[in-house]
Design goal:
- The protein has 12 helices and 20 strands.
- It has helices spanning 12-23, 36-41, 50-58, 63-68, 88-92, 102-116, 236-247, 298-319, 323-326, 328-350, 358-373, 375-386, and strands at 5-8, 28-31, 47-48, 70-72, 74-79, 82-87, 97-99, 120-121, 125-130, 138-143, 146-151, 154-157, 175-190, 199-203, 209-215, 218-226, 260-274, 277-278, 281-283, 289-290.
- The strands form 4 sheets. The chain has an 8-stranded mixed beta sheet with strand order 6-5-14-15-16-13-17-20. Strands 8-2-1-12-19-18 form a 6-stranded mixed beta sheet.
- With 391 residues, the chain is α+β, with helices and mostly antiparallel strands.
- The two termini are 31 Å apart.
Length: 391
């Protein structure tokens, strides 16, 4: 099998890259180790930056997004039982975010590929990326019990943190930067309408809490828990009781409860792999970088990566110049490190670290009070949250 761009991974990064290349007239094939049903139900991110929604619309994947996505013009910060809203458009020149689950983004892009191409091969386990430093890289994969080879001019590694593509970059040229956080998120889906119409980020002496949503009838909620916690350690009633404590306000606001349909624990880490390119292999999304989830940057960073890569590949096809491809890693990493900074700052602002002292607590509250009382501080948060320009 032969194509111009071999894309490993059918998450939002791989699927969007395939769509952008299809629109640019560049042949590609997507290989995904899981089946379609798994990809379409895999719960991940749900907050889309302004730039991400703009790209999805331009790619023809905006119809259901515009119909069903929940447009948000701000978030609410809670601390000391007080509520403070950060309004986005006034602080960012009109930018906002949209709540629309990653599963829905994948469904939309898969449906487009099904009707308009390119081919997406599910249940195709990628075994290795070979000869990435030559002009003819190869992707070995297993499908229907047979080993096959995809020959291509370029490989896009969109296969996530645990995928095989990053392993194709020799250790001698790799630099890894990372940080593990001493806490995790216990996340639940609940069949109950959200108790607030915007996301609520709460700093509490007992730990962080987040009120989010997936739809007008489904709530998504998170609690800070110790690292290594298992979801089975918390009963539904304990989860609701703790959320109520951490989200409590002085004005009588009430958290509505409902049936919990899913529980999971997400570890918190920051990770960057440099470079994001080796020969003709280009890493994108979680294959190259991980951010803690508080800043809602993971999916949006992946979109930024593939927009840069698609533009570079289209430029090379049109002009014969590899200038933008050569700049891919440096271009992406500038945005990646800004997102890492924002996500780290928001995480340490809102989470209480084990062993935190009264001094640490006062500093957190002072930082939050600064955001609540300073337009410039609020604008910095709003600009980071709604996203830097893509590319």
């Amino acid at each position: 099998m032969r194509t111009t761009v071999g894309i490993v991974g059918a998450g939002p990064a791989g699927l969007l890259l395939a769509r952008l290349l299809r629109l640019a007239g560049i042949d590609c094939v997507v290989l995904e180790c899981r089946d379609r049903a798994y990809v379409e139900r895999r719960q991940r991110a749900g907050v889309l930056e302004q730039g991400t929604t703009d790209v999805l619309r331009a790619a023809g994947a905006g119809e259901r997004l515009d119909r069903e996505g929940l447009r948000h013009d701000g978030i609410e910060l809670r601390f000391g039982r007080r509520r403070h809203r950060i309004g986005f458009p006034d602080l960012t020149g009109g930018r906002r975010v949209t709540v629309y689950a990653q599963t829905e983004v994948c469904k939309d892009l898969i449906a487009l590929a099904e009707t308009d191409g390119p081919p997406v091969l599910f249940d195709a386990e990628v075994l290795a990326v070979e000869d990435a430093d030559t002009g003819a890289p190869r992707v070995r994969f297993r499908r229907d019990g047979r080993e096959e080879v995809l020959e291509c001019a370029y490989v896009a590694g969109c296969d996530g943190f645990h995928g095989v593509c990053r392993a194709a970059v020799p250790a001698a040229v790799s630099r890894v930067f990372g940080r593990a956080y001493p806490y995790a998120w216990l996340g639940v889906l609940a069949d109950v309408p959200p108790s607030h119409d915007e996301l609520v980020y709460a700093r509490h002496d007992r730990g962080f809490a987040l009120l989010s949503m997936r739809s007008p009838s489904v709530s998504r909620l998170y609690l800070q828990v110790p690292e290594g916690t298992g979801p089975e350690e918390w009963t539904d009633e304990e989860i609701w009781d703790e959320l109520t404590r951490r989200l409590e306000t002085a004005d009588g606001w009430t958290l509505e409860r409902g049936p919990v349909t899913q529980k999971s624990v997400t570890p918190m880490r920051s990770y960057v792999h440099e470079p994001m390119r080796y020969g003709r292999l280009f890493l994108a999304g979680d294959a190259a970088h991980i951010v803690p989830p508080a800043g809602a940057k993971g999916l949006n960073l992946a979109v930024g990566d593939v927009v840069v890569l698609a533009r570079a590949l289209e430029h090379e096809r049109r002009t014969g110049s590899a200038e933008l491809l050569d700049a891919y890693s440096a271009t992406c990493l500038r945005r990646v490190w800004q997102a890492e900074r924002f996500s780290h700052d928001l995480t340490t602002l809102l989470h209480r670290a084990p062993g935190a002292t009264a001094f640490d607590d006062r500093l957190q509250l002072a930082r939050l009070d600064r955001i609540a009382t300073s337009r410039s501080a609020a604008a910095d948060l709003a600009e980071g949250y709604t996203g830097l320009p893509l590319g």
